Amino acid sequence: MDKIKIFSPATVANISCGFDALGLALEGKGDEMVFNKTTTNTIRITKIEGANLPYNIDENLVGIVAKIMMQDANANFGLDIEIYKGFKPGSGLGSSAASAAGTTFALNELLGKPYTKTQLTKYAMLGEEAACGSQIADNVSAALFGGFVLIRSYNPLEIVSLPVPKDLFVTALHPQIEIKTEDARNVLPKEVSLKSAITQWSNVGGLISGLYTSDYDLIGRSLQDVIVEPVRKKLIPHFDAVKNAAINSGALGAGISGAGPTIFALSKSEVTAKNVLKNMQSTYENTGIDFSIFNSKISTQGVRIVNSE
Ligand SMILES: Nc1ncnc2c1ncn2[C@@H]1O[C@H](COP(=O)(O)OP(=O)(O)OP(=O)(O)O)[C@@H](O)[C@H]1O
Ligand SMILES: N[C@@H](CCO)C(=O)O
């Protein structure tokens, strides 16, 4: 294979109760990238559309991840890379993760598929470190594996794919402000009380049980975050109003997508999700802040090939 075009999905990390441990992949929203093998032994980013990002391969995490993987594999080719961002960095929808996961997937194909998805996740986590200072796995593993994922352990890295109940829909409202993941991590408490920890891990258990049994009400009751959301929601204008609008219009639950500012809601059917979108939208329309909003199914596929030669 000499050339590959891939699609890498947007993702929702944390899913309320599972900070750094849970993620899901969205259908339809994501980045595309083209990787062309060259005979030059250099890596170049030749085109970037959709976001203002560096072309320097030591600054753009696509270049950073590609360089490390090429060196480790002793690759005997160079690369020309085109990046088409489908959503903005700093949105809470895993922009850096879509780039990092997509790069590892494409490189694996061009190298003859030497790596497992868990090994690719480890490489993609280096991209996350370059973006925000932490080797987080939730967005990148959701992008690579698709569906719902649980990071059962960071060391050694263990990713568990969870079932996706067929009627689940995601609504995502993205206020047009940028929150850097690094900044959103810096506001977090260094310690949590035992009481909060018990509530949180009980909800993670409830959510996972709900996914396995397609118990939508249990999923809804488990979408609670008593540790991260109370601190981070202060960074997101009108968070409570939008969350309440989602729940009052039938959503199972709602919370912060990743590090924010995107607010996500889960609903049991497309009809409910449409109603939830309408009410979240009309709540934000009164704020004077620009935003975008969409509904999505959960993608069970993750990063995929668009075409290859
Ligand atoms: N290819 C790339 N795609 C996205 N961001 C990149 C890329 N290369 C470098 N960056 C830098 O990474 C930072 C974005 O990372 P950050 O984690 O804050 O956003 P994010 O990935 O959209 O957040 P979240 O994971 O919450 O959705 C920005 O400073 C951006 O310039
Ligand atoms: N779990 C990470 C995701 C960042 O995209 C966080 O919430 O900081």
Describe the structure.
With 309 residues, this protein is α+β, with helices and mostly antiparallel strands. The protein folds into 2 domains: 170 residues, Ribosomal Protein S5, domain 2; 129 residues, 2-Layer Sandwich (Alpha-Beta Plaits). It contains 10 helices and 11 strands. Strands 1, 2, 3, 4, 5, 6 and 11 form a 7-stranded mixed sheet that branches. Helix 1 runs parallel beside helix 2, helix 6 packs antiparallel against helix 7 and helix 9 packs antiparallel against helix 10. The structure holds adenosine-5'-triphosphate (ATP) and L-homoserine. The site of L-homoserine has 13 residues, from helix 4 and helix 5.
Helix and strand succession?
EEEHEHHHEEEHHHHHEEHEE
Identify low-pLDDT runs: none
Indicate the CATH architecture of the largest domain.
2-Layer Sandwich
- The radius of gyration over CA amounts to 19 Å
Shape: globular
Q: The CATH topology of the largest domain, please?
A: Ribosomal Protein S5, domain 2
In total, how many domains does the architecture comprise?
2
Instruction: Count the DSSP helices.
Output: 10
Determine the structural class based on helices, strands and strand pairing: alpha+beta
Average pLDDT figure: 97
How is the biggest beta sheet arranged?
A: 7 strands, mixed
In the CATH scheme, the class of the largest domain would be Alpha Beta
Estimate what percentage of residues fall within beta strands: 25-35%
